[in-house]
Amino acid sequence: MTSRRSFIQIVPIAGALALCARGALAANDVVVDEKDPQAAALGYVADAAKADKAKFAKFAPGQNCAGCQLYQTRPGSATAPCPIFGGKLVAGKGWCSAWAKRA
Ligand code: SF4
């Protein structure tokens, strides 16, 4: 009886942990869509060369996500999570108006 009770208590906990892990992976695998309202508001583009220089005058050639303080580099990957977008992936060649020079 005791082992059955233990099993019944463990199964929901294991399931919840599996769902949490799966959710975390899913969030990290989502690529930011330029048309997403937040991305549009920040002027995010996957190719910095396409940044709206008229709207975002602070943009300067050479700025891109890979050179941004917030870019959470993943070795060997062209994309990485960005906390501005809740951990969704942005392109290393991308840019948004929250760009801050990597120290
Ligand atoms: Fe790219 Fe930095 Fe903007 Fe994130 S905050 S999208 S890393 S420029």
Question: Keywords for this structure?
Answer:
103 residues, mainly alpha, globular, High-Potential Iron-Sulfur Protein, Chain A, 2 domains
Molecular structure report:
The chain has 103 residues and is mainly alpha-helical. It folds into 2 domains: 1-28; 31-103, Irregular (High-Potential Iron-Sulfur Protein, Chain A), CATH 4.10.490.10. Helix content is 33%, strand content 6%. The chain contains 2 helices and 2 strands. It has helices at 2-29, 37-42; strands at 79-81, 89-91. The protein has a two-stranded antiparallel ribbon with strand order 1-2. The chain starts with a helix and ends in a 12-residue tail after the last strand. 24% of the residues are buried. Residues 10-26 have low confidence and may be disordered. Bound molecules: iron/sulfur cluster. Residues 44, 65, 68, 70-71, 82, 84, 90, 94-96, 98-99 line the site of iron/sulfur cluster.
